[in-house]
Amino acid sequence: MPGTSDVTIITATIPSRQELLSKAVESVQNQLVQPAYHLVQNDDNKIGGAAVLDLLLEKTQTKYVCVLDDDDILLPQHIKVLTEAISSSDADLVYPWFRYASSGNAGHLEQYAYQPWSNNDVHQVPITWIAKTESIKEVGGFSQDYEANSMNLDGSGHRIGYDFILIKRLVAANKIIKHHPEITWIYNDNRVSTLGMPSRW
Which end of the chain has the least Cβ crowding within 10 Å, N or C? Predict the structure, then answer.
């Protein structure tokens, strides 16, 4: 039987994603080390992904929290690798690497693959990370400073989402971010993304 870690996985979902969600849930069940909890909540009131994640974060009591989007897949070693990486370091957040389901690379983020994090080059970090729960709560969670239907773009034309805003708040609060250079999950780019925006579904 797999061991259990001091981790809660949180997943925001929407009604049309049940088939995708089932595959995400299955990937959690297939972990070599199981999370203590996998909390899933449907956005019944169309408040947006960030606000739903904040509701789940409030319920999280474990030392660590991981986010899993309802349309992505964790490889079996994901929780094991990340809990070992964060517990053996002084980091507040550790992010692994990923590949797109269709192409095998990481799209516009590929330039950051396997590169150590630097506060001098703050960039988008895929949200499928592990972090100290208290650190995420301390900087305001997911929806602070974020408008759910915003389409603000960065200099390269990519949307600035709540995940990037959260990273910026962690840096501003002098929290420690580290990169674990291993692919531990698959980004499902074979679907229409809602970008966590309630106006898109």
Answer: N
Identify each DSSP E strand in the chain by its residue range.
3-4, 7-13, 33-34, 37-42, 64-67, 73-74, 93-100, 130-132, 177-187
Identity of the amino acid at 23: K
Tell me the per-residue pLDDT of 25-70, one tens digit each, with 9 for 90 and over: 999 999 999 999 999 999 999 999 999 999 999 999 999 999 999 9
Rounded Cα distance, 26 and 20, in Å: 10
**pTM of structure:** 0.91
**Both tokens of residue 156?**
């390269």
Which is it for strands 7-13 and 64-67: parallel, antiparallel or unpaired?
parallel
d(CA 77, CA 31): 6
